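Take a record.
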Amino acid sequence: MNDSLATNLQRALRFTFKSGTLVYILITAVIFCLICTDNLEYALKHHVPRDPLSPGGTALILQTIALLLLLYKLLDNSERMRLSLDDEPVSFAPVSVISGTLPLRLTGLGLLVMIALGAIAAALAFMQSRTGLQLLGGLVLLAGFILNPAITLAMLKTDTASAAFSPRQWGDAISDIGAGRYFALLGIAVALIAVAILFIVFLIAPAMQQNLVAGVMQQAMSGKSTISVPGTMYIYYLLIGLVLMTLAFFNQHLYASAFPREDSDDPESFSYGMNAAEMESISAALAGHGVTPPTAEDKSAAPAAAAEAAPDFSLLADADTSGMDIGTQKTFVLALARADTLLGSNKIDAGLALLAPYADEAHDAAAYFPAYRRIYALKPEYELLQRLAAAAAHGHAPSFELIRPELERIDPATLPADLIYPLAQFAARQQHYPLVLTLTRGFAQHHPDHPQLIDNYLLAARALAKTGHAERAQQLLTQMLSRFAHHEKAAQIRATLNLLQQQR
């Protein structure tokens, strides 16, 4: 699906000025400012500019941080645009929809390429070929600029860093975008860069030079032994950084606006690169957790229609909405409906990205259980398990039932100690006695001083008795009575033991 250039520009602007992007523009601009002022301070102290190829230690660290932040966020935002997540807020995390290792893999391969180019540059320097060095540097910069959109799309399509160095993948990416549109977007980027350079050179640079000279002269005339960077220079460098970083993000968003989007009507696009067996396994995983998303063929459930339709509050049937106002419920329901459509189309990354903000540490698992359930079906991560366990411990039955299979085989030492007793209580009320035994196993060994130690083992004793192991239950209670003879709960232990003995 190819939008008009005007639409491309509008999408790029929207993504650039989302709060999740503006934060990174500001951070990288501040880093740029610190690098420049560090270099200026060196020049003022040593009366000679620092070699750009030999930055100081501080500058090198800052450069590395800035480049990694840029790489992570630019790639992640590009993928969000490719997944048509235009209406969703941009995550404040560096990574939300791409693999967290992709930028690192690219950096590693990039370093190898730079080493190779460095060897060529060293040979040219040995031959004292200054023209050759300049030509090499110019060709590398030009190739990087021209191939940037193709490289980005190739990596996102394949989730491999090696695609960045594959001419075949470059060609496929340019073909996907369209050669005419590809070079039109590059032309717009060149024009914007030229405007930015002219702005900096003719407006900012003269003012900077004037203020720098005035600041240095003032310090010299005041008798200061060392000259420091005038405070106004921080403002100028920050301004330049903001211009350059905004331009970097906008240009990348402009390229990404032309990438083939995952909301295509082509039926093959719904496979998301999966074969039939993989698609069936995903559907089965969701169905096993009570989620039956609409299928891609269900035109009435298209994402746009889902967003405009009346909210289906039945999607919140298993959620504890007691502390949630109606506006929040409506927003959540519409997000669930759209996520279900994406998941039903096997656009898994897009669906999970849409749900992820509702399943973080700030969102209670009981209140936002529908999001947790869908994510847990496909990505049962430990952090989700812990938050669901906390909700279950507070009496949320759907959370308990969702994680019960995992609790039955988990090492209880991996769970927070304070959750063991309420979870075991819940399991006992549901007559899941083997689970009670699993949860309480080894509690004294892992948490010997925990205030709920006796409570846990009383539950374990009753579970043993309920599962036909009354003798083992009595042995456990006898050991507890011997160890805790003077404990305030000794009478409770003795009463439980007497009750079991009477039932023999």
Remarks:
- Residues 263-276, 296-308 have pLDDT under 50 and may be disordered.
- The chain has two domains: 5-256, 269-502.
- The chain has 21 helices and no strands.
